[in-house]
Amino acid sequence: ALFALMKLEGYKVELVTEHAKDLTYSESFKELNDQLKVFGEQNHRMNRLVGHVDYIVTDSPLMNSLVYGNEDSPHFKGLVMEKHCEYDNFNVFINRIKEYAAYGRTQTAEDSDMLGEKILSILAAYNQDYIPIDGGADAAAHILQAFKNSQQTNVPILKTPLTSSAKVKFKWHP
């Protein structure tokens, strides 16, 4: 919905779909567990658009590799953050307010809630700005308005002390 709204308003924007979800639908679970490959493909999907569009909308930002990966390697984490920071990111955390939709996913609702907490912890640990948005029918309109507001003020929306070349990337709740 956000991608469509931005297109309708004349933004030069493209949608980058979630490679991990493609792997889930094709039941390529072994490949799904190779977070380095998943990260590389997601980075490729975004990087090929640099210089062609002004904005990228995705529900699978590069930092997701820190959430789903079992990589304790500081080199992997450093690579993920290096690539993440090559983009001018606008991160959004979607608060689930409706029933969990399990299709295209390998997690339960409870797993998703735990991953949501992990996302918030990682955003905090890496000092990343984000805005929380309730995931209702008007979420896309609220995200677009928050984005417009951030462009006018050039001030971060929310940074928590507990807890980035296309110009925008959106983070969604798992």
Descriptive notes:
It is globular, with a radius of gyration of 15 Å. The strands form two sheets. Strands 1-2 form a two-stranded parallel sheet. Strands 3-4 form a two-stranded parallel ribbon. It has 174 residues and is mainly alpha-helical. Helices cover 45% and strands 9% of the residues.
What distinguishing features does this structure have?
9% strand, two-stranded parallel ribbon, globular, 174 residues, 45% helix, 8 helices, disordered C terminus, mainly alpha
The overall pLDDT, averaged over residues, is 85
From the spread of the alpha carbons, the general shape counts as: globular
Low-confidence stretches: 155-174
Strand order of the largest sheet: 1-2
- The total count of helices amounts to 8
- Structural class per helix/strand content? mainly alpha
Radius of gyration: 15 Å
Fraction of helical residues: 40-55%
Number of strands: 4
Order of helices and strands: HEHHHEHHEHEH
Largest sheet: 2 strands, parallel
Tell me the strand percentage band. Answer: 5-15%
Distance between the first and last residues' Cα: 17 Å
Summary of the model, kept short:
The chain is mainly alpha-helical and 174 residues long. It contains 8 helices and 4 strands.
Write the layout of secondary structure elements.
Layout: H1 2-8, E1 13-16, H2 19-25, H3 29-32, H4 35-47, E2 55-58, H5 64-68, H6 74-84, E3 92-95, H7 109-125, E4 131-134, H8 139-153
Parallel strand pairs: 1-2, 3-4
